[in-house]
Amino acid sequence: MTGKRVPGTEGPHAHRRDIRIYRGIEAWVFDLDNTLYPHEADLFAQIDEQIASYVQKILDIDRDAAMAHQKALYHQYGTTLRGLMTEHRIDPDHYLAYVHDIDYSALEPNPELGKAIEALPGKKFIFTNGDRPHAERTAAALGISEHFEEIFDIVSADLIPKPNRETYDKFLAQTGISPVRAAMFEDLPKNLLVPHSLGMCTALILPKGSRSVFRDDWDLEDEPYPHIDFVTEDLTGFLKAVLAAVG
């Protein structure tokens, strides 16, 4: 059904494939930041600030230069951490503790999301470029910790971030899941390229109010997102629709 969305795509969701494709899925893989919690919580903005602060202190440069260097490292290496390790030999444990020293009070328990995740048939995983303590604190703040089989973090990935193929291979090897019977939920399109190539069902989580803009891109003849099967602004609502479809 490439290039066409199935009926019932009004509201905060958009489909390229029939949602019944989720029948038979046995592993549900969720990114953490801006995926399990809404982009509007602005939690990652705090992390971004901490990263810039860390770069500023480590390299003893001014704030503007630190932010510019941070972004350059991110684009070249996939994460600022990888860039700092490669170019400046920083201690990754110190970095991860520093950048995730943030205020989680903006997150509120989301029992509806918890119920939806719990009801999904099969195992559920968090797969993040952040570290385990950050993922644990985030999941605890949302009240969803108990629903996940495992957290696969940047340390589990030997500090090699998504979207590197070897990181997905490590995730699959550690969890033992079959990609063709797995679904992944992410907020970054580039992080869904490899999952799609492996046969996973892919869903992109967007900030509220942005799906209509994405839909316009999706409708282009040469649109750039053939690796994305579903788009939603509302993860909880989308999971409820999935549950209704899979019976």
Main pleated-sheet profile: 7 strands, mixed
Give the number of domains.
2
Termini separation (Å)?
22 Å
Q: What percentage of the residues does DSSP assign to strands (E)?
A: 5-15%
**Helicity, in percent?**
40-55%
Strand order of the largest sheet: 1-7-6-5-2-3-4
The second-level CATH architecture of the largest domain is: 3-Layer(aba) Sandwich
Shape: globular
Layout: helices, strands, pairs:
Layout: E1 13-15, E2 27-30, H1 43-59, H2 63-77, H3 80-88, H4 92-99, H5 111-119, E3 123-127, H6 132-142, E4 150-152, H7 165-175, E5 182-186, H8 193-198, E6 201-205, H9 211-218, E7 230-232, H10 235-246
Parallel strand pairs: 2-3, 2-5, 3-4, 5-6, 6-7
Antiparallel strand pairs: 1-7
Protein name: Pyrimidine 5'-nucleotidase
Pfam family, one: Hydrolase
Organism: Roseibium aggregatum
Description:
It is a single chain. The chain is an alpha/beta fold and 247 residues long. It contains ten helices and seven strands. It has two domains: 13-41 and 107-246, HAD superfamily/HAD-like (Rossmann fold, 3-Layer(aba) Sandwich); 43-99, DNA polymerase, domain 1 (Orthogonal Bundle). The model is unreliable at 1-11 (pLDDT under 50). It comes from Roseibium aggregatum. InterPro entries: HAD-like_sf (IPR036412), HAD-SF_hydro_IA (IPR006439), HAD_sf (IPR023214), Pyr-5-nucltdase (IPR010237).
